[in-house]
Amino acid sequence: MSINLRRRDLFGAGLAAAIPGRAWATALNRGFTHNVASGEPSQTAVLLWTRYVPAGDAAALTAEVAEDAGFTRIVTRSETTAAATTDYCASARAEGLEPGRWYYYRFRTASGETSPTGRTRTLPAGRTGRFNIAVFSCSNLPFGLFNAYAHAAGRQDIDLLVHLGDYIYEYGRGTYPSAAEAMPGRILEPANEIVTPADYHARYATYRRDRDLQALHQRFPMISIWDDHEFANDTWKDGAQNHQSETEGPWETRKAAAKAAYRHWLPMSDEPYKAYEIGDLATLIRLDTRAEGRDKQPELADAFKLADDPAKALAAFRDTVWADPARQMLGAPQEAFLADALTASVKGGTRWQVVAQQILAGETKTPADADASWLGGTPPDYVKQRFQAGVLAGKIGLPFNFDSWGGYPAARTRYLGAAQAAGANLVNLAGDSHNAWAYDLANGGSPAGVEFGVQGVTSPGMESYMRGADPKQVAEALVGANPELKWCETQHRGYMTLSLTPDAAQCDWHFLETIRARSTAIAATHTALVQPGTNRIA
Fold first, then answer.
1. Exposure string (b/e) for 408-436, b if CB count within 10 Å is 16 or more?
2. Which residues form the Phospholipase D N-terminal domain (predicted)?
3. Which among 9, 189, 314, 385 has the fewest CB atoms less than 10 Å away?
4. Across 461-517, where does the E strand assignment appear?
């Protein structure tokens, strides 16, 4: 989610550089420095991860997978190497496993050093009665503690984790959050905005030292998706709002560095998009709405340049730039993959088609009765003007966030049209916004699916901009102004659980009492339910 009021919140507002080597590794000590993790599960395999800093330049590791925590029944071993070229991160693919089973795993060195023991699970095959997915997004380390991770790590009913992006943030210390907002002890490394390979690796190392994030990874497999802040704010395929080539070098160099560090530090495959089969219950489709095929976000500010009549200028912007059918969100190859995956899933008799991607697809406009007093205090004139521009834009049908699917209406139509053509029971998962949302998605006047948007783990949401309004008032106004929006919560942090059965897809939002002290206490929960064949929230 952007903090750039110019674009993102109208409602409120080179690879040639060295991979970090000996010096950084020494600072993190030797041996197994960051616990273990697993991801990319299938029915018979899973990707295992650890980080091991050797005394020399590289070390051979053996990954062992067992049926029991005592490793008396080891079922497979695989070899990998921890080396400076990957910042000593090592991954091993464990294969030959049985579907729908929990396993234990660990890494060992030739000299007998052993990593912590992790637990992971393969995906089920055939008839599947229930599957539970914990969903996360937007975990800005200095804003607060990862209590959402801690809460989920303590549960026994989760089968899979899905992280929808903004796993890290790229900003330097004191930017977002400001020094006054940052929680003591949550210190970013490096201190500067991350740009080089060494920077990105160091930032992941900082995040992955968090004990609650380590515990979550250690206990469950994760399918992870990058959003913009794994690169830079408001990423698109050829640039980002928070990238200045004149001082930070070519965008392609920075993008390559960010991708490499992400894949080094997370158990993540190289495929930019992919489908996972959860028995006959669901197909989980992972998309990339950021770096793969997205064209640049439209700029509402451009509509007002040299405009004598703002309303007329907005209408022209709506009918040309915003509605341009050539602008892409996914890119043609990914659009074709998505349509094929939806069709194959339905034809194969799979009950649910779950699309895990970064951004909201639900139509969301600024309410016409929104009042600048919602901002609270005495905001600068430019903030009030942009707020008022958002209200005016909403009145002629423009969304309040052009960085979401709302900024790409033709691409959105193609996406939802593909789901309708396939006859899908579509559940769209979205992050990025820092708040919680439930939508009935429509296309051409007909139901196309439902959307569940997850609140941030720590990143602040709309409440941080709407300091003069009761969050319940804001939520009611949003729901009243947007027919697709059935519910939202704009105040608390946390995560959500998607529980799938043949008879229903149920989403539970878990809202934490605090992120400023260690606590897993839940302040509130909310539940939404959809039945197959309806594509509507019950």
1. bbebbebbbebbbebebbbbbbbbbbbbb
2. 34-122
3. 385
4. 485-489, 494-501, 504-512
Which residue(s) pair with 236 in the sheet? 239
Identify residue 465 by its one-letter amino acid code. Answer: Y
Q: Which of 524, 529, 527 is nearest to 491 (CA)?
A: 524
Q: Which two tokens stand for residue 349?
A: 């008799």
Give Rg (Cα) of the chain: 23
In angstroms, the CA 15 to CA 21 distance is 15
Strands, DSSP E only, in 280-351? 282-286
357: CB partners within 8 A, 6+ apart: 164, 225, 286, 287, 288, 289, 428, 429, 430
Q: For residues 36 and 52, give the distance between their C-alpha atoms in angstroms, rounded to a whole number.
A: 10
d(CA 445, CA 461): 30
C-alpha distances in Å from residue 424, one per residue of 130, 205, 336, 415, 452? 19, 40, 16, 12, 16
Whole-number mean pLDDT of the chain?
93
Do residues 135 and 500 make contact, with C-beta atoms less than 8 angstroms apart?
Answer: no
Q: Are 41 and 123 in contact (CB under 8 A)?
A: yes
> Do residues 387 and 372 make contact, with C-beta atoms less than 8 angstroms apart?
yes
User: At residue 510, what are phi and psi to the nearest 5 degrees?
Assistant: -110, 115
Tell me if the pTM is above 0.90. yes
Nearest-5° Cα angle at 204, 240 to 152: 105
Edge-to-edge strand ranges of the sheet holding 522-530 = 89-94, 46-53, 31-39, 222-224, 160-163, 131-136, 494-501, 504-512, 522-530
C-alpha dihedral (304, 309, 312, 314), degrees to nearest 10:
20
Q: How far apart (Å, rounded) are the C-alpha atoms in residues 423 and 82? A: 46
Determine whether 109 is exposed, middle or buried from the number of CB atoms within 10 Å of its CB (0-12, 13-18, 19+).
middle
pLDDT tens for each residue of 378-437:
888 877 888 888 899 999 999 999 999 999 999 999 999 999 999 999 999 999 999 999
List, for the chain, all residue ranges whose pLDDT scores fall below the cut of 50: 1-27
In angstroms, the Cα distances linking 269 to 163, 196, 198, 468 are 14, 22, 21, 45
Tell me which H or E stretch contains 83. strand 74-83
Q: How many CB atoms lie within 10 A of CB 95?
A: 12
The helix/strand/coil state of 365 is coil
